[in-house]
Amino acid sequence: MKLSLHLFCIATVLAVTASCSPKEASIEQRFPLIWANGFNFEAHRGFSDEFPENTEASFRAAVEVGKTAYQGMESDVRATSDGELVMFHDDNVDRTTNGEGKVESFSFDGIRSLDAGDGEKVPTFDCYLYYCRLAGFIPYIELKVYDKDAIRKVFETLRANDWKDGEYVITSFNLDALEMARDLCDTPLEYMSSNMSLEKVDSAK
Length: 205
What we know:
Blueprint lengths: L2 E5 L2 H7 L10 H4 L1 H5 L5 E3 L11 H10 L6 E8 L5 E3 L20 H5 L12 H11 L2 E6 L4 H13 L8 E4 L2 H8 L6 E5 L4 H6 L2
Parallel strand pairs: 1-7, 2-3, 3-5, 5-6, 6-7
Antiparallel strand pairs: 3-4
Helix pairs in contact: 4-6
């Protein structure tokens, strides 16, 4: 499985992850040129314009908007100190919860005790996959676990939830994580970078 390479461009990211509430026009109507050219629109950390990012409320709201707006839902998977998989973007919990410290320093029970915004809890990977299935979304899973045991658990959880290779996309800014993932699956892998070089392009081949 070859890695595809994404050149990040702020304008593209803003367009592709644009949000649309149920009462507004669909993304097809708002961005007809982008839609017509085959872009996939992803709910970025759920419906994070209106709800706390990477929470069950945000995932649920994205489902309610549904495929009139999105084809997939992107989120970030991390591991707690006791090896449980949770959905969280930052390295530490300070910005989006009432806690402090690195995600990996919390036990599962500890991180679930935090307020992730509006009384929401930090969701599990299983929870995220449930909402993707409910809406018929393609899961776009950004790996923020970088050891093989944790990455293996990501794929074990996918398969336990009846997701087959090819039905989801694995992304990461960490090439080593994607190389480990490549040994464990036969599904699209996307290497993301905020800056591009010939060396990075060669590495992703």
